[in-house]
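Quick one, probably user error.
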């Protein structure tokens, strides 16, 4: 088996997802692989968007469109580089998390997809599904579930 060339990880800005980013970054650094960090987002619409604009005024751009995802990705990339990985690419994707991770993994030819374990041990996760379990079923490539909770 050869070393991984492209390691991908998803983040939603939570502490758990940043722990997954750091784990993926350490592995990518050891392998000399590119690290792709993806963040899925759903843009604000209708009443939510109107309320955000009313409350935030000129600062509303921070929660509209991909801005929150871009900020999450900036933080994740900084944390990844702190783990020693050199080649980092970030991708903000307007989609549901599982669909986004699976699609981006294919688009970037990832050979390893790293996700945190959040939701795997919960009752809701067992009944409704969880991002790590759903990604592992659908990805079609190696999936590493790292302990983050």
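Nope, works fine. Designed sequence:
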């Amino acid at each position: 088996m050869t070393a991984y060339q492209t390691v991908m990880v998803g983040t939603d800005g939570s502490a758990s997802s940043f722990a997954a980013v750091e784990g993926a970054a350490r592995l990518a650094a050891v392998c000399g692989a590119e690290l792709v960090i993806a963040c899925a987002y759903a843009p604000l619409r209708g009443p939510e968007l109107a309320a955000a604009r009313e409350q935030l005024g000129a600062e509303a751009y921070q929660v509209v469109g991909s801005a929150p995802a871009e900020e999450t990705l900036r933080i994740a990339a900084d944390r990844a580089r702190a783990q020693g990985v050199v080649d980092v690419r970030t991708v903000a994707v307007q989609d549901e998390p599982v669909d986004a991770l699976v699609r981006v993994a294919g688009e970037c030819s990832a050979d390893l997809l790293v996700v945190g374990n959040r939701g795997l041990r919960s009752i809701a996760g067992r009944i409704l599904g969880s991002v790590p379990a759903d990604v592992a079923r659908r990805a079609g490539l190696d999936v590493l579930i790292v302990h983050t909770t």
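The CA atoms of residues 15 and 148 lie 8 Å apart.
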